[in-house]
Amino acid sequence: MTFSHKILHWYTKNKRILPWRETKDPYKVWLSEIILQQTRVSQGLPYYLKFTDRFPTVSDLANASEDEVLKLWQGLGYYSRARNLHETAKMVVNEYDGEFPKTYKGLLKLKGVGDYTASAIASISYNIPEPVVDGNVYRVLSRFYGVKLPINSTQGIRYFKQLAREVMNSGHIRDYNQAIMEFGAIQCTPKNPDCQGCPLNEGCIALQKNEINELPVKNKKAKIKNRYFNYLVILDPDDKTLLQQRKGRGIWQNLWEFPLLETKDIIERDELERRYDEVIDLPDSPEVYQFNHDAIVHKLSHQHLYTKFWVVKTNAPLKNGIDFRTLVDFPVPVLIADFIKTFKI
């Protein structure tokens, strides 16, 4: 039995029942793939169900507001995926008459769709023999064939794509691509894989050489940057507050947040009181107190955010103030969503 046949045989016995596996609709396949990028199935599944319930078709998604899309995405992270999701939906509706391209190259033209997503849609929706290569596939191939090229290097990416093409099962590409990804997710896991019960163990080079924990190889990530956020939770006598929308190309683009004072290090109340007028102009001398004594460490892929929330009570009514109770309607970073749930007026 060949490599691909063993993978398919394993899949028929062990695959999880998931809603996106019950459809060939390119919209739902695309939606699931975008949601599951850098996201575990257990975390992504509720979001997939929310999106397909709220936006049953690509037209429904295209016609939504960006705020609504971001709000529904809230808590899933990597918000550029949500913005690209919305832009791509509008692109499909406006430029492709509501129909997804039916070729691998055509799918690559969609915003936010790279090789992996295009390959997944092409194979699952249209049965096109195009191999998928995601983190799970890298792990299976690198271990089984003993490949030590870094999976995040140009040479490694090219090599693994070609290797995936050579070993794929073209006749059953729709199931095979899902099978090898599933195999990496629940059989050939990153840590403590069940090698004794693995159908590929006899031919696995990494197992033979005791290199399971060393593969796949990945070049070191960029150094983590520490940032220090001080959110000013302004409250007036009517329990109104202020939010601002993040602009530019940094983190959380187009999400809403409290006025932010970013500093070079963690600060205490005396410094905050001297500097809050750098970001907000208040007519009186407000009462300021620190909500969380220790900074909350919020970890992103290349940044760690050390965050303090400062409650700033003013006696002057806020111009353009927002009722604090309505903040739950705004798309905000999960860090701020957690604060809003915790804070009691």
Note down, in words, how this protein is organized:
It is a single chain. The protein has helices at residues 3-14, 26-36, 41-54, 58-62, 66-73, 80-95, 104-108, 115-126, 135-145, 154-167, 173-186, 205-208, 269-275, 334-342, and strands at 225-235, 240-241, 244-245, 256-257, 260-263, 287-290, 296-299, 303-313, 322-323. With 345 residues, it is of the alpha+beta class. It has 2 domains: 3-214, Hypothetical protein, domain 2 (Endonuclease III, domain 1, Orthogonal Bundle); 225-342, Nucleoside Triphosphate Pyrophosphohydrolase (Alpha-Beta Complex). Strands 1, 5, 6, 7 and 8 form a 5-stranded mixed β-sheet that branches. A two-stranded antiparallel sheet has the order 2-9. A two-stranded antiparallel ribbon has the order 3-4. β7 and β8 (303-313) form a beta hairpin. The longest helix has 16 residues, at 80-95. The model has no long low-confidence stretch (mean pLDDT 94). Its EC number is 3.2.2.31.
Summarize the structure.
It contains 14 helices and nine strands.
Cα end-to-end separation? 66 Å
Structural class: alpha+beta
How many DSSP H or I helices? 14
Question: Main beta sheet: strand number and arrangement?
Answer: 5 strands, mixed
Shape type: elongated
Domain HhH-GPD: 35-186
Function: Adenine glycosylase active on G-A mispairs. MutY also corrects error-prone DNA synthesis past GO lesions which are due to the oxidatively damaged form of guanine: 7,8-dihydro-8-oxoguanine (8-oxo-dGTP).
EC number: 3.2.2.31
Catalytic activity: Hydrolyzes free adenine bases from 7,8-dihydro-8-oxoguanine:adenine mismatched double-stranded DNA, leaving an apurinic site
